Amino acid sequence: MSTDAIASPGPESDEIEHIALDEDYVLTPAFVEKVVDAADDGDGMRLRGLLEDLHPADVADLMGFLTAEHRAVVTLWLPPELLAETLPELDDGIREEVLERVPHLTLAEALQELDSDDAAAVVEDLEDDRRERVLAAMPELDRAAIESSLGYAEDSAGRLMQREVMAAPQFWSVGDTIDHVRAQGEELPELFFDIYVVDPLNRPVGGVAVSQLLRAPRAVPLTELMEPINEITVDQDQEEVAYVFEKYHLISAPVIDSAGRLVGQITVDDIVNIIQEENREDILRLAGVSDEDRGSSIPEIVRGRVPWLAINLATAVLGASVISWFGATLEQIIALAVLMPIVSAIGGNAGTQALTVTVRALATRELNSSNAVRTFWRELVVGLANGLILSPLIGIAAALWSGDWRIGAVISTAMVLNLLVAATVGVLTPLTLSRLKFDPAVSSAVFVTATTDFFGFLIFLGLATIVLL
Amino acid sequence: MSTDAIASPGPESDEIEHIALDEDYVLTPAFVEKVVDAADDGDGMRLRGLLEDLHPADVADLMGFLTAEHRAVVTLWLPPELLAETLPELDDGIREEVLERVPHLTLAEALQELDSDDAAAVVEDLEDDRRERVLAAMPELDRAAIESSLGYAEDSAGRLMQREVMAAPQFWSVGDTIDHVRAQGEELPELFFDIYVVDPLNRPVGGVAVSQLLRAPRAVPLTELMEPINEITVDQDQEEVAYVFEKYHLISAPVIDSAGRLVGQITVDDIVNIIQEENREDILRLAGVSDEDRGSSIPEIVRGRVPWLAINLATAVLGASVISWFGATLEQIIALAVLMPIVSAIGGNAGTQALTVTVRALATRELNSSNAVRTFWRELVVGLANGLILSPLIGIAAALWSGDWRIGAVISTAMVLNLLVAATVGVLTPLTLSRLKFDPAVSSAVFVTATTDFFGFLIFLGLATIVLL
Questions:
Q1: CB-CB contact of B160 with B113 (8 Å)
Q2: Is the ipTM of this complex over 0.90?
Q3: Which residues contact B362 (CB under 8 A, 6 or more apart)?
Q4: Least confident of A82-91, A436-445, B11-20, B92-101
Q5: How do beta strands B194-198 and B167-169 pair?
Q6: Hey, which CATH number is domain B15-160, 1.10.1520.10, 1.10.540.10, 1.25.60.10, 2.40.50.140?
Q7: Is residue A65 a contact partner of residue A38, using CB atoms and an 8 Å limit?
Q8: Tens digit of pLDDT for each residue in B168-217?
Q9: Chain A closest CA to B194's CA: distance in Å?
Q10: pLDDT tens-digit profile of B35-72?
Q11: CA–CA separation, A153 vs A137, rounded Å?
């Protein structure tokens, strides 16, 4: 998404914004209500009056709060340019739905208003035959830009970059550059933060921040001002690009092709979106939820969640089968059936703690092979410490309740051992997945709790059988 | 943290970087090994040779991979300026440790190299008496800037902003502004992206992107170029500031005091850090881990995790007490003890799914009172659908295994009901916490799984007692 030249007016600056946004820049329920009323009444003029002064990001937000029928009415009455600018801001599910309702000629026109990366992101969501019709209705140059963007792999730097970029040859001075910008302003990106200095083969050799350019006298050569740059290659994964931006506090970076030639730039606002998206994926995957957003239909949500619940069901059956091995023990001491879920529950919780910390450390690249062994030992020691702190409590409580001190000894020993199992599996599962190039957040949680359930029942009931019978 | 004028050189551009970083800009284990060897040998010159060309962000990364003893040696041999620039990049725990080892005069000198927001972030971590000594050793102006920054609440925009800002009076032209920047360059922020146009009372009335200024002829008045701005007030919470930046794709924003006067600016690179920090907090809190990073000691980690495990232990005991009510039932049908954890496990998983989706939607402000009721109904329908899909499987399996079709009927009914409990508690817990102004991620997970365990056992064993006995 490209940066906004036109900042949204603050909540105070305009009547409609005042109604629409609360002091935290969130849409007010009262405003959403007004839109819903106007849509219900089919009052198009009132609807347009409410919408036309909104920032595209607020229109996208509004869409998320509406039902599909209301979205259809709003789409119909949005001014075309605002519709265009809103499209890249929408959640994927809602964008697909809205795109289906926009005639392809309107869409072709709307897309010309956008930067190449935003336009490509929208076109990407169209069905194959519609995509062709929309592209056919666009001017040659815009079409070529979109098609070239779509030629790069999804989630690659090539897909993310905008082709509009400010480059200057090595022999230019500050004055040459300013004159060029004043003369060619129309063809340059609307906003840019760095000027890339390129050699005769169009390969970037350095960068000059615009504010540094402004500060220098006209006669100074660019090569004197320029600083080393972090080059991004077109095929780099967007997650890696985000890491570089975040680590070195970059505002923009040049993108080069395999021959090292400058082909575009990536700006930090795109990176903010990617960081949020990656975080969302991690947090949802840890909970066993596949891709899902507020635009998802109920069948889509169910399809995303049932597989994980089914796997959980299978592992729960495995846990139950462990219990069934000890049917004879349970028949003699029913107290064990009462206590056994405690051992597995604590194990599951401690395992999830270790797992989450590990997944997070892998995601932020704080964990790699130089400290993996140390991390593992640290988690084991933490698990042991947690066990030694908590097990006396439950041991004494169980002994008092059952009137048998041996039951207290069994449950507290089982808990310490299961906390060690939890630490082991909590660290090793994501590390192994990551080593095998899988996403460590996917399926880790199910595996960890399945293991702590399994061993929780096995250790507790096994020990009880040995000690008590 | 302020933006970097000096971008880090790419991995190819320099010998030392080539050894230090792999193609993803992550420190190589081989490089970390070299540093550890040099530190073990006490070879200060070799250590300095390895370190001096690193980017501060890479030094901070390196510190994270080392043990405390090795960090002490590295701190000793870091060139002073690099040490200064590294301090703001360190994890909190490691920064505190490193700060203890730096003499206060060295520190006072190092802090003068930093922007006011970065210097304040470091000083904040010092013990009270050391803070006073360090501040006393600094020049009046730098000290005043740091003290004023520390005067704002933690996590507020005032603490986050840098005081260095580029402002221009309303009556200036593009040419006036460029001349001013060339003349006053030294006192301006090293990098800036927007020029704030202010009225005679120093209240911002608009903003001009630097690239837009560059594009315009010298005679154009600023007021003709300026766009509305999103003003941040000094007391706004950093999470709200991040939301505004993210929503409107801002690169920088002016900060005003309660009288509306321009007092500083916030840039997007600080926001990237905050977004990452908030995400880290959310993901860890959902797993029941209080603040913890790779610099935390084992006792700190244990203190952060044991309370949640203790609460979990208490709720597990509550679950066990439900089971104990049905001791008589279990004694007659031991199969129920085998099957009961399945019902609670599925409930816990489904509840965690609903909870995580809700916490995430609240964090990104996609969920508020305009769609809360709809979200709740949607989750209930999803829960019912999940239940109707999964319960026949477990019902048939349980009937076949136990040889009693009534047990199959009981477990499948209990599972559907518990999935409805899971959906209810998964949505309502974070919504209620958020309404009461608590962080919805804290303690939600424990409460949700406690509830699904409690009702899982109660519904299953209760139904079994009614139907089977």
A1: no
A2: no
A3: B430, B431, B434, B440
A4: B11-20
A5: parallel
A6: 1.25.60.10
A7: no
A8: 999 999 999 999 999 987 778 888 999 999 999 999 999 999 999 999 99
A9: 9
A10: 999 999 988 889 998 998 889 999 998 998 888 899 99
A11: 24
Indicate the fold that domain B298-468 takes in CATH.
Answer: Tetracycline Repressor; domain 2 (1.10.357)
Number of helices followed by number of strands (H, E) in chain B: 23, 6
Locate tokens 């921040």: which residue? Answer: A209
Q: Which residues are registered as beta bridge partners of A237?
A: A156
Interatomic CA distance for residues B59 and B96, integer angstroms: 16
User: What separation in angstroms does the CA of A447 have from each of A8, A166, A452, B315, B389?
Assistant: 46, 50, 9, 23, 22
Mutate to test the interface with B, among A85, A247, A330, A366 (most CBs of B within 10 A): A247
Residue A120, both tokens: 């490509």
d(CA A161, CA A266): 5
Q: Give exposure, A104-139, as e/b (b: 16+ Cβ within 10 Å).
A: beebbbbbebbbbbbbbbbbebbeeebbeebbeebe
* Spatial separation of the C-alpha atoms in residues B205 and B294, rounded to whole Å: 44
Q: Which helix (H) or strand (E) holds B186?
A: none
Closest alpha carbon within chain B to A308: B349
CB contact under 8 A, A284 and B191: no
Pairing of strands B252-256, B232-233: parallel
Backbone angles phi, psi at A197, to 5 degrees: -90, 125
Q: Do A341 and B5 touch (CB under 8 A)?
A: no
Contact: A229, B10; criterion CB under 8 Å: yes
Alpha helices in B151-267 (DSSP H): 157-160, 174-184, 210-215, 222-225, 238-248
Query: CATH classification of A15-152 is 1.25.60.10, yes or no?
Result: yes
Q: Is A198 helix (H, G, I), strand (E, B) or coil?
A: strand
Please name the residue that has the structure tokens 């192994």.
A432
Backbone angles phi, psi at A127, to 5 degrees: -65, 155
Q: What are phi and psi of B204, to 5 degrees?
A: -65, 135
**What is the fold of A167-279?**
CBS-domain (3.10.580)
> Contact A215/B382, CB-based, under 8 Å?
no
Q: What span, in angstroms and rounded, lies between the C-alpha atoms of B291 and B73?
A: 27
Burial A43-76 (b: 16+ CB within 10 A, else e): eeebbbebbeebbbbbbbbbbbbbeeebbebbbe
d(CA A459, CA B207): 67
